[in-house]
Amino acid sequence: MYSITEAAKRLAVSPHTLRYYEKEGIIEPDRTSSGKRSYQDVHIDWLRFVIKLRETQMPIANIKAYTELFKEGNHTKRERLTTLEEHKQNIQEQIETLSSTNEMLAKKIASYKELISGDHCEREARRKM
Question: Residue 107 in contact with residue 97, Cβ under 8 Å?
Answer without folding.
Answer: no
